[in-house]
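Action item from last meeting closed. Structure (72 res):
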């Protein structure tokens, strides 16, 4: 896998791009959970900020794996 992505002449590390994608997915997922499931979904978690961080780490892993398969 290429370790850098060329965006308008600027080489961006793949991990940074995966983190940005995961951040967008995390915000969208959080908004969808608040709207469709329950506003108090995080009340079941021991520490809501830690829960959000864990979801972010999972999404970074998934997006990095997808980028690894898509990029040559």
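Sequence:
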């Amino acid at each position: 896998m290429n370790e850098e992505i060329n965006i308008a002449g600027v080489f961006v590390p793949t991990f940074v791009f995966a983190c940005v994608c995961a951040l967008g997915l995390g915000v969208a997922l959080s908004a969808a959970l608040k709207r469709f499931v329950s506003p108090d979904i995080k009340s079941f978690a021991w520490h809501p900020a830690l829960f959000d961080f864990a979801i972010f780490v999972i999404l970074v892993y998934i997006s990095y794996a997808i980028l690894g398969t898509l990029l040559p």
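Note appended to the action item: The CA atoms of residues 22 and 58 lie 9 Å apart.
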